[in-house]
């Protein structure tokens, strides 16, 4: 009996020790997660503040407006009137961009708005490929207008090596037709996320008073020094700043853009100056409340109300 009591007591003692060890392991596991998070945060900050060796990606609108009406679009396309880039000016700007970057841009992305609303896509494809023979060129689209494209469009995609990168929205699109066309013309078809994922809605939260810390907004921004935007001969570090005028006009606001928010390719002395510019905050960063940007779940349409861009 004495040995049995000692055995039972040892079980209780060991159980307590096991609980302490388990609690300590959980604590260490959480500390490890915190350290990994801090390390990744610092790495991301360092990456944003380090000038790129050359531009990995630059985005260009082929249309300002859209045939969808997305909630809180960070290009403000649901608020924009119909608009397309002027083809003659576009060619002049692309030629200058190629000159100053030595044609060294890894990826050029045609976006919008919905780029297929532009009836002259093939001309923009040809001009861009002429001046950037080695860059990847993507067309981002919601897919609605792909069935209506002429043979010239598909031939231009093939000739100019355009990759089709649709975003899958919860809308009716004949993807079988699109896949067959891409297969026929040898055009890469790669869904922007993947073919099984449908678009969700994201809330872009702004601070109209402009009292946020530019540095912290820049560091926390997934677009900064990554989703570079090219518009009217100027390069911006994001898509929000160059399109904020649609927000201002729709809601009678005044979130100003200054010459310091972009770099003019006609005034930049060289490629290095552009890359240095993109690796630092711009004054407009004070209007973006990046800490509050968030997914709101399944895709929804816009009511074109300012509340879609404010923290309520």
From TrEMBL:
Residues 64-156 form the Radical SAM core domain. Pfam families: Radical_SAM. Residues 11-45 form a coiled coil. Keywords: Coiled coil, Iron, Iron-sulfur, Metal-binding, S-adenosyl-L-methionine. Its cofactor is [4Fe-4S] cluster. One of its GO terms (molecular function) is metal ion binding. This is Radical SAM protein. It comes from Helicobacter ganmani. The lineage of its organism: Bacteria, Pseudomonadati, Campylobacterota, Epsilonproteobacteria, Campylobacterales.
């Amino acid at each position: 009996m004495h040995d049995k009591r000692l055995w039972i007591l040892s079980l209780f003692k060991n159980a307590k020790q096991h609980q302490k060890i388990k609690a300590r392991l959980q604590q260490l596991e959480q500390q490890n997660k915190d350290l990994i998070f801090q390390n990744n945060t610092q790495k991301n900050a360092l990456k944003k503040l380090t000038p790129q060796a050359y531009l990995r990606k630059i985005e260009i609108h082929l249309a300002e407006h859209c045939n969808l009406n997305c909630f809180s679009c960070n290009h403000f396309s649901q608020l924009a009137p119909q608009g397309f880039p002027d083809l003659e000016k576009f060619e002049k700007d692309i030629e200058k961009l190629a000159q100053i970057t030595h044609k060294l841009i890894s990826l050029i992305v045609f976006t919008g708005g919905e780029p297929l609303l532009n009836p002259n896509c093939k001309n923009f494809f040809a001009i861009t490929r002429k001046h950037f023979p080695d860059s990847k060129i993507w067309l981002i689209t919601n897919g609605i207008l792909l069935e209506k494209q002429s043979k010239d469009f598909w031939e231009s995609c093939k000739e100019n090596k355009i990759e089709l990168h649709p975003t899958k929205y919860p809308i009716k699109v004949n993807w079988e037709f699109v896949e067959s066309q891409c297969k026929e013309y040898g055009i890469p078809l790669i869904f922007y996320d993947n073919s099984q994922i449908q678009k969700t809605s994201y809330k872009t939260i702004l601070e109209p008073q402009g009292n946020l810390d530019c540095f912290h907004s820049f560091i926390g921004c997934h677009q900064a020094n990554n989703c570079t935007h090219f518009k009217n001969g100027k390069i911006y570090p994001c898509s929000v700043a160059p399109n904020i005028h649609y927000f201002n006009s729709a809601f009678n606001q005044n979130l100003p853009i200054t010459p310091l928010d972009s770099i003019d390719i006609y005034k930049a002395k060289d490629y290095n100056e552009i890359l240095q510019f993109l690796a630092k905050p711009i004054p407009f960063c004070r209007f973006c409340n990046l800490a509050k940007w968030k997914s709101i779940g399944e895709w929804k349409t816009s009511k074109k109300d300012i509340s879609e861009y404010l923290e309520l």
